[in-house]
C-alpha cells in the first residue's frame, strides 16, 4: 500500500539519539507511512545508521545532501514526499505511539487541512507540558478566537506537533526559509495558516521534545533578541495579511516580557560559555530598547531573593556592569 503519510526527519550528526527517535516512528500503530531521513552532511555514523534503517524497513527512505541546515533538509524531504499528508520529527525527539493513528484518522474522516496536538518538553530532570484544549475550526475565521492562547501555549512554534496536507504545501509552493537559523518553523506555519480551511487541535500529548545538554547549548544564542523581534514582526505581518491586526498589541504585550527575561537570564547564566564582553554588549542592547527594557522589568519585579534584588536594581538603572558584577566576582572573564 502506498504511503498515506510522509514523516520527514532531518539528521545532522545524530548518532547518539537517532535510533530511539527512528524507532518511535517505526513503532507507530498506524503503519502506512514513509519515513524520509535526510542526512544533512553528517560526519559521524549517521549515514551508516540511516542505511541500516532503510535496509531493515522498506518504509524508510534516505536522502543525502551536503550540510545546509535543518530548513534545507526539511525542504528536500517535502519535495520527495509521496504521502497525502506531511509531518516532521526531529532526530533527537520521541513520537508517542498513537500519534499517526489519531492524526491521520482526523485528517481523513473530517477532510481537514491541518491537525495539531499537544506535546511535552522533556529533560533528564523532568518535563513540562505544552497544552491547549481541543477545538475544531471549520475555517480560518473560526480559528481567531483561539489564536492568542494557542500561540502562547507554544503551538505555533513547531512543525513537529502538526500534520499538514501535502497538496496544500506543494500547491502553494511553501518552503522553509533556508537563510534563517531559527524562527523558520513559525514563518512556515504563518504561511500555511494564512491559507487554512478546516483544522482541528487534539487534546492528547503525542510528542516529546527532548532538551539534551547539547541541544540547549545550541539553542541558547546571543542573537535571541533579534530572533524574537523577527518572530514578532512576522506575527504582525501575518495578522495584517489576514485582516486581524487588532490582535497584535494583546499578543505582543503577553509575549514580549517572557522574551525579554529569557534573554536577560541567558546573559546572566554563569553556565553559558559567553565572555563578559559579549554579555555586556547583549545587556546594553536590551537596555537601550525602551520597549524591551519595560517588558523586562515587569518580569523581574516578581522575583525574590538577594541576588534577584541586585539584578533588578541594576537592570532598573540600565547598568550592565553592575548586573555582571556577581559573575566577575566568580572569576568570569
Key attributes of the depicted protein:
2 domains, 15 helices, globular
Describe the protein's topology:
Blueprint: E1 5-11, H1 18-26, E2 33-40, H2 46-56, E3 60-65, H3 70-80, E4 85-88, E5 94-95, H4 99-110, E6 114-123, E7 126-130, E8 135-137, H5 140-143, H6 147-152, E9 162-165, H7 166-172, H8 184-193, E10 199-210, H9 213-219, H10 224-241, H11 248-268, H12 276-288, H13 290-300, H14 306-316, H15 320-329
Parallel strand pairs: 1-2, 1-4, 2-3, 6-10
Antiparallel strand pairs: 4-9, 5-10, 6-7, 6-9, 8-10
Helix pairs in contact: 8-10, 10-11, 11-12, 11-13, 12-15, 14-15
Going by helix content, strand content and strand pairing, the class is alpha/beta
Number of domains: 2
CATH topology term of the largest domain: Spore Coat Polysaccharide Biosynthesis Protein SpsA, Chain A
| Distinct helical segment count | 15
**Helix share bin:** 40-55%
Q: What does this entry look like structurally?
A:
The chain is an alpha/beta fold. The chain has two domains: 5-219, Alpha-Beta Complex (Spore Coat Polysaccharide Biosynthesis Protein SpsA, Chain A), CATH 3.90.550; 224-329, no CATH class. It is built from 15 helices and ten strands. It has helices at residues 18-26, 46-56, 70-80, 99-110, 140-143, 147-152, 166-172, 184-193, 213-219, 224-241, 248-268, 276-288, 290-300, 306-316, 320-329, and strands at 5-11, 33-40, 60-65, 85-88, 94-95, 114-123, 126-130, 135-137, 162-165, 199-210. Strands 1, 2, 3, 4, 5, 6, 7, 8, 9 and 10 form a ten-stranded mixed beta sheet that branches. A hairpin with a 2-residue loop joins β6 (114-123) and β7. Residues 215-219 have low confidence and may be disordered.
